[in-house]
Design brief:
This protein is of the alpha/beta class. The protein is 43% helix and 14% strand.
Length: 431
């Protein structure tokens, strides 16, 4: 089976769990006899292609005189998206990037019908323009390659998936890793919501990463439940003993928050819980690893609470830095307000770190040996952290059985289910 797959990022150039999930899934799909052509906006040259053929959208030439492409372009609605939709950059950082002209100028200087588009592959000021052009490239690839199924990851690539389906007539599977309600609560960006809904409606099958997300897709987007299937994420095995044995260089216990510092991830609840724990025990250090639009507010709140000497902000961590941070941690906390899945608790348990997670997360469906609290319950959150720090038997139990659980969460199991979804979509298309 051959799959034309669209994704906005691929390791090692990732900004969150989406790229990590794409890597794990494509490796596992190959073992199921599924050969993937993975299209990203921009290829850097150091991507791991052991299990996937990566296509660079920036390399694709199109004939703009071809009526097929001109007709498709007429159907694309151009929308401008502001800096608030760049999920991993604070407003101050965004302004700096704009002033320093870090974003690719070619996007604004080229004609919209140029024969070759240069993508930044980032979440830049011309994000929607890139999404539209990426869809145009998708139609070209769909017309010139042989494949059985189209698979589009997250809203950025749904227009590309729809374009490829219109050109090729092949079935479309869209993969929902997050929804606009997860990212923005009730204050959604209507443009993004509309793209998500159109992608799900056009799809022959929809994959969600949790039952939690599946219900949102059905209730908030009005999608037919019969075509929405849950396939939980997994985690890559980890055996880097050098990193696992990393020294933390401080005598105090370390409690870590690792993720985007945004509304969705609940960083403010982590700060308030930290303050409550420190009122009982001063010998604890709290770490907030990540960037986002709430970062400055969190720094100010930590200062107001007078806990700055016990609270550390690392900025964005990636690759081995993440593994090293887990190795130095005694407790990992994910207090997300709305988390479609959440791979980071699995990565923490893989590193022998007990976890506290919010009940409002997809990973809570599959993890039994984790302390689960409502994201808004600061008292329960602080009590859970304190308990894991001070009751060794409790901590050891969650580490032992939690790691056993995670070791059984293999991408191969997810790939088997995804292949079945592919077969269902082909069956529906052939009716």
């Amino acid at each position: 089976m051959r799959v034309l797959m669209f994704g906005w990022e691929f390791p090692p150039h990732i900004t969150g769990g989406l790229g990590t999930a794409c890597f794990g899934l494509t490796k596992a799909l190959l073992k199921q006899g599924v050969h993937v052509m993975f299209v990203v906006p921009k290829v850097y040259g150091d991507e791991n292609q052991e299990a996937v053929r990566i296509l660079n959208a920036s390399d694709i030439m199109i004939d703009i005189t071809d009526e097929t492409f001109q007709e498709y372009w007429k159907q694309i609605t151009y929308m401008e998206i502001g800096s608030n939709l760049i999920p991993y950059v604070s407003p101050e950082e965004f302004e700096r990037l704009i002033n320093e002209n870090v974003f690719d100028k070619n996007e604004t200087e080229q004609s919209i019908f140029s024969e070759q588009f240069l993508f930044s592959g980032k979440y830049g000021k011309d994000l929607m323009k890139e999404v539209s052009r990426y869809a145009l490239i998708a139609s070209s690839l769909a017309a010139s390659n042989q494949f059985d199924v189209i698979h589009a990851h997250d809203w950025l690539t749904y227009p590309a998936g729809i374009a490829a389906k219109k050109i090729s007539g092949k079935p479309l599977v869209v993969h929902v890793h997050a929804t606009e309600f997860d990212r923005s609560g009730e204050n959604i960006n209507q443009n993004v919501y509309d793209i998500e809904r159109k992608g799900m409606e056009a799809a022959d099958m929809v994959i969600t990463v949790s039952h939690f997300t599946r219900q949102i897709v059905i209730d908030r987007y009005g999608i037919d439940p019969d075509k929405v299937v849950t396939v939980h994420n997994a985690v890559e095995p980890f055996d880097n003993l050098a990193v696992l044995n990393a020294k933390k260089h401080v005598k105090e216990k370390v409690v870590t928050f690792l993720g985007r510092v945004t509304f969705q991830k609940g960083p403010d609840y982590f700060v308030e819980a930290a303050n409550k724990v420190l009122q009982k025990d001063k010998n604890v250090r709290f770490v907030m690893a990540g960037q986002g639009d709430m970062l400055n507010r969190m720094i100010k709140r930590v200062a107001q609470l007078k806990i700055s000497t016990q609270f550390h902000f690392t900025g964005f961590l990636k690759g081995e830095e993440v593994d090293t941070m887990f190795a130095m941690s005694d407790v990992y906390v994910m207090p997300s307000v709305s988390e479609p899945f959440g791979i980071s608790p699995l990565e923490a348990l893989r590193s022998n770190v007990p976890v506290v997670i919010s009940k409002q997360s997809g990973v809570a469906e599959v993890l039994r040996h984790a302390l689960k609290v409502d994201f808004w319950d600061i008292d329960a959150l602080s009590d859970s952290i304190y308990g894991l720090l001070h009751y060794e038997a409790l901590s050891k139990m969650f580490i032992k059985y939690g790691k056993e659980e995670v070791d059984n969460m293999k991408w191969e199991n997810s790939a088997i289910k995804v292949r079945l979804v592919y077969e269902m979509s082909i069956g529906k298309a052939n009716k």
